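Reopening this ticket.

The earlier resolution said the output was attached, but the attachment link was broken on my side. Pasting everything inline this time so it's all in one place.
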Amino acid sequence: MPFERIIQPPGARILIADDQPHILAALRMLLDVKGYQTCSATNPANVLAALQQQAFDAIVMDLNYTRDTTGGAEGLELVKRIRLLDQHIPIVVMTAWSSVDLAVEAMQFGASDFVQKPWSNDRLLEKVREQVERGQMLRSSKCQQEEEEADARAIQRGLLPGTLPPVPGYDIAGITQSARFVGGDYFDVVPINKNKIAFCIADAAGKGLSAALLISNLQAALRPLILKDLPPAEVCSQLNRTLSEIIPDNKFITLFYAVLDAGEGRFTYCNAGHNPPILVRSNGHACQLKNSGAVLGQLPQWSYEQIDLGLRGGDTLLLFTDGLVEVCDEKGNLFGEERLLHLMQELSTNDASANSASALQNSLLANVSAFCQGSFQDDATMLIVRPDKL
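Inline output:
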């Protein structure tokens, strides 16, 4: 038997660990009388086995075991391994009065509190009660956070297009690489009429449900303006005034909005504080579309400007959010916009696998993911537009 379970009336579940049977018996009796459900283990391996088989509200454990009766090395290693299994479970460590330094070291490794042997029953019960309540609060907060993130992901998925509309003469692809923590990324491609198509990409400040709700407000205000076929600068101006009335002072949204006249190959855009898109011409020349105005929601009287750009066959245009360029490698080096520009230039002109917008998108994402070892701190969104080659 890896550990012994003692059936008690409903209550918090405590795992107690010590290699001395009389200590385990005393702790069990003390905790059982107070209505706790107890489970005992006599060595580190049994402690880890118990944690993998059932959930506990707290652990009360000795730092010294048979293989190391005084140094506490086994106990410290056990605390570290418990933390790898569960970041939130409270750990109360027990050690002799002459080894207080060991208990302090254990707390640096992740223990929550310590009790000196021989212990005071009242003091031990007080610490167990405090740690159980603390652990339950942490778990409740974690559950609430997970529910909020699930709600945010659901909202975000509902805002993003399921499929992009076909645009004759153009190859278009878009994707969002979701991070662990939901951000406020948004993109869309909306036909205005037979020849005109609106492109937009946005990013709300912050993460989680609040960012998703900001983007929900943006979409609700933006959609009617798109269908009115307004110039991009006017769209941004009206959006800015609307959002300034409802966005809190410490929040904002960045937006790149453009209208493509597919028949003429004219791309007219306005940038409200967003990352400058990257354009790679058919001859391999790459540049950023750096013209930009104020972010949305903070300066309601800001006057936005728009720029006309000709897209020709073989050109490649990349719209993206900062989650794509703000990732870091293991040394803390930022991926950055300059690295993205050179990568875009290389893949667009030299990589045969990047002939389609979708293939290019996948290659870009694979390169960025390899750089950061898949550790995206924010959502990374891309929208690629490629006119067919002449």
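Reporter confirms the inline version is readable. The two ends are 75 Å apart (CA to CA). The first strand starts at residue 4 and ends at 6.
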